[in-house]
């Protein structure tokens, strides 16, 4: 094709492509211009490295938000030789929200033409290309991926925008078809689907919902007031965006804290996850959040869950705890407050507060316990049934006792299963009374033959037998 033709090809591109440097992650010093081949050399584009393309979202101020240089910086820290390109579509992004939402089609088209140019003109391999889009930018990335001549390696959707997209056709939003691999973080999916800031439905190969995806720890009103007290009203928009933007900071965390990888677990619903029932890593049921995700493409999209801390590094350790409550009379109690303490080979985590939705006589309860402390291998745990903080008649009325013989624990991060026995053979759990203590069970000698094996025993006698040992 003649040069006139190519010039016309790139005429309508309004988005700008800034190749940032590790040196000045917050400055737009050099732009790659589709159709102007010399701009790559001028901006020191590295042809043999991977390229990250960062696409921002809706903006009220018409300026970049503070997370942009943070993400650029973290990408360069992790991949010093890479090219980090920031797509500037600020003028379109600062319109009335529905207008900006509609512009994602044009931004996606710009980005696709930029990528096709790189591939056709410089044979840049799309295997080296990773798009990261936040909010509306996630959908722009998806549209770009659906329009390129060949498939992009990976798109990461950082809390893709919900309004105008929750019920949209797959072609106008981020979807699994848009790249070889699409991973998505959902951090602010509150309210009814059409009102939710972040999209609620899964839109990738792997969709991770940290802390259930609705709202993130450390983003509540109390924190807000503290922020305003410390930093003044200038940061109020940070408040509204706190959970939405957490998606970006979780990804930054995955770039900076190699040794503290957050693990997410496949689960059909957040209620099931809260019961601790999903801490399995068999058959790709768990995966790393963020940069080091394993690219698993199932037939249908995979919803995954995890808990996090309220600040970086976000990693916590997940445990499933299973207890059978024995008792004489049939009793069911709802929303009971408990304190759990875990004692391990490396450290301990005391008085983790949790509320059990329901406990019943002669039924087994399963629940999730998590801690930011890496306690090592669990050696002992204690369980205390708390009194309600306000005096209630029912407390005084029923001093009901549950008997517990053993506690089963599964550690998500190590996949180890353990059984703990009452130190006294049977522990009596009473509301407002002291904690019940459970220690690693003594193993019975393994029986040969069928059925003999791993079942650990907790006979009353075991504690006396081993006293002298």
CATH architecture of the largest domain: 3-Layer(aba) Sandwich
Q: What percent of residues adopt helix (DSSP H or I)?
A: 10-25%
User: How many domains in all?
Assistant: 2
- The end-to-end span amounts to 88 Å
Structural class, by secondary structure, is alpha/beta
Give the overall form: elongated
What is the CATH H-level superfamily of the largest domain?
Alpha/Beta hydrolase fold, catalytic domain
Number of contiguous helices: 11
Main location: membrane
Pfam family, one: PLAT
Family: Belongs to the AB hydrolase superfamily. Lipase family.
Protein name: Lipoprotein lipase
Note the main attributes of this structure.
469 residues; alpha/beta; Rossmann fold; Lipoxygenase-1; 2 domains; 11-stranded mixed beta sheet; 8-stranded antiparallel beta sheet; 21 strands; disordered C terminus
Short description:
The protein is α/β, with parallel strands linked by helices. 24% of the residues lie in helices and 27% in strands.
Describe the fold and architecture.
This protein is an alpha/beta fold and 469 residues long. The protein is built from eleven helices and 21 strands. The protein has helices at residues 3-9, 38-42, 67-78, 90-93, 97-122, 136-147, 221-231, 236-256, 270-274, 393-397, 461-465; strands spanning 16-20, 31-32, 51-55, 83-88, 129-134, 154-158, 181-185, 206-210, 263-266, 286-288, 302-306, 317-325, 332-344, 348-360, 363-371, 378-385, 401-404, 406-411, 417-422, 427-430, 436-440. Strands 2-1-4-3-5-6-7-8-11-9-10 form an eleven-stranded mixed sheet, sandwiched between helices. An eight-stranded antiparallel sheet has the order 14-13-16-21-19-18-12-15, with no helix packed on it. Helix 3 (67-78) runs parallel beside helix 8 (236-256). The longest helix is centred in the first third of the chain and has 26 residues, at 97-122.
């Amino acid at each position: 094709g003649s040069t006139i033709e190519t010039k016309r090809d790139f005429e309508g591109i309004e988005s700008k492509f800034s190749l940032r440097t590790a040196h000045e992650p917050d400055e737009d010093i050099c732009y790659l211009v589709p159709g102007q081949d010399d701009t790559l050399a001028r901006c020191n584009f590295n042809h043999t490295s991977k390229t990250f393309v960062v696409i921002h979202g809706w903006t009220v101020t018409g300026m970049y938000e503070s997370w942009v240089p943070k993400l650029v910086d973290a990408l360069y820290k992790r991949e010093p030789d890479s090219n980090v390109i920031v797509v500037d579509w600020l003028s379109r992004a600062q319109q009335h929200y529905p207008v900006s939402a509609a512009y994602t089609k044009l931004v996606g088209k710009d980005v696709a033409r930029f990528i096709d140019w790189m591939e056709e003109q410089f044979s840049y391999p799309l295997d080296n290309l990773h798009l990261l889009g936040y909010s509306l930018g996630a959908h722009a990335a998806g549209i770009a991926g659906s329009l390129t001549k060949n498939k992009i390696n990976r798109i990461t959707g950082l809390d893709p925008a919900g309004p105008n997209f929750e019920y949209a056709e797959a072609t106008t939003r981020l979807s699994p078809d848009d790249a070889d691999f699409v991973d998505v973080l959902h951090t602010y999916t509150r309210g009814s689907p059409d009102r939710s800031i972040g999209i609620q439905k899964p839109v990738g190969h792997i969709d991770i919902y940290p802390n259930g995806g609705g709202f993130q720890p450390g983003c509540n009103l109390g924190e807000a007031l503290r922020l305003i007290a410390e930093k003044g009203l200038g940061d109020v928009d940070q408040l509204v965006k706190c959970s939405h933007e957490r998606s970006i900071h979780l990804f930054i965390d995955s770039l900076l804290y190699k040794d503290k990888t957050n693990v997410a677990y496949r689960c059909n619903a957040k209620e099931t996850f809260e019961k601790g029932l999903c801490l399995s890593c068999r058959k790709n049921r768990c995966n790393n959040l963020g940069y080091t995700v394993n690219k698993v493409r199932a037939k249908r999209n995979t919803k995954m869950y995890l808990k996090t801390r309220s600040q970086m590094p976000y990693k916590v350790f997940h445990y499933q705890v299973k207890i059978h409550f024995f008792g004489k009379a049939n009793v069911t109690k709802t929303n009971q407050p408990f304190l759990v303490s875990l004692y391990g080979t490396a450290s301990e985590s005391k008085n983790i507060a949790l509320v059990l939705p329901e406990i019943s006589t002669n039924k087994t309860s399963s629940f999730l316990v998590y801690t930011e402390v890496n306690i090592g291998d669990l050696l002992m745990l204690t369980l205390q049934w708390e009194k309600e903080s306000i005096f209630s008649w029912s407390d005084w009325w029923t001093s009901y006792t549950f008997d517990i013989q053993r506690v089963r624990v599964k550690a998500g991060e190590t996949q180890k299963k353990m059984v703990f026995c009452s130190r006294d053979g049977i522990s009596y759990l009473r509301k407002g009374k002291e904690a019940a203590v459970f220690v690693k069970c003594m193993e019975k000698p393994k029986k040969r033959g069928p059925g003999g094996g791993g079942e650990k025993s907790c006979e009353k006698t075991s504690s006396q037998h081993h006293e002298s040992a």
